[in-house]
Amino acid sequence: MRLHPAATLLVPYYSIEDCNVASYDIPKGTTIFINAWGIARDSKYWDEPEVFNPERMCPAYNLGLKLVKATLANLLHGFNWKLPDNLKPEDVDMEEEYGLTTHRKLLLTIRCADHSVKPLDEWQLKCSFTDFLKSSFSLTVPEDDIVVRRFKDLKKRKRDDPVTHGVLFIRDLGFLSKFSRSKILHGIDGEDNVKELEKKFLGWRRLVVGKTDGIELNLEGVKFRLTASVPESDDFGMTKEWEKLNAFGNRGL
User: Fold this and answer.
1) Are 197 and 176 in contact (CB under 8 A)?
2) For the purposes of burial, counting CB atoms within 10 Å of the CB of 202, is it exposed (0-12), middle (13-18) or buried (19 or more)?
3) Fewer Cβ atoms within 10 A, N terminus or C terminus of the chain?
4) pLDDT per residue as tens digits for the range 184-230
């Protein structure tokens, strides 16, 4: 921090009256910049100013202590921690001694818990996914239209198996509203309208599946990759082919 300060110049100051500093006359209303880089390397105040010596006084000592606390707090917040070798918290010696004594040396190892075996927060998953649908496709999907099915025992899950799986129901197809139902059912070009409607729907569905497949959802600082596909039973094209085949089958062809 002394040799390489984050800001070479400190926050500007403003003189409210005429003054004299180190034989320099500073008129009222002057903007003053403090050269932190020059002060930290001034040989008048530092022996061998270009040499890093951790034993000398550190101007950023208090800042360093705060950063250590902030870093530790982020680690505790972002992960689940557990003691090794089935060690219980009450077995850890946390007694303190007063006086000029050396701190007790304690060999303590802490291992980060695996989030893949942590129960997934269904509410956070739905909120994160609905936010994605709204920002990407302008779709407002109720939470009840996202059905999530979890693994009964995540510890028995294979490495490549998904943490959870589910179904998304999109019931609001308002983008198709420009095609009037009466024209489709009773219009002169009703069959053409139906084909155009089907083409538009299938194109939109491919876009949604393609853009959704492979996205990452951030839940409590842990990223989960989501894969999306259309079930064969819900494939519109396959259903039509099956209906045609079934119809010909009934005729004995």
Assistant:
1) yes
2) middle
3) C
4) 445 545 566 667 777 887 888 888 888 888 888 877 767 778 888 87
Residues 230, 205: contact at Cβ < 8 Å?
yes
pLDDT tens digits for range 100-156:
555 555 555 555 555 555 566 788 888 888 888 888 888 888 888 888 887 666 666
Long-range contacts of 151-154 (CB under 8 A, 24+ apart): 154/116, 154/117, 154/118, 154/119
Instruction: Give the integer Cα–Cα distance in Å for 243 and 253.
Output: 14
As a residue count, the chain comes to: 253
Beta bridge partner(s), residue 225: 216
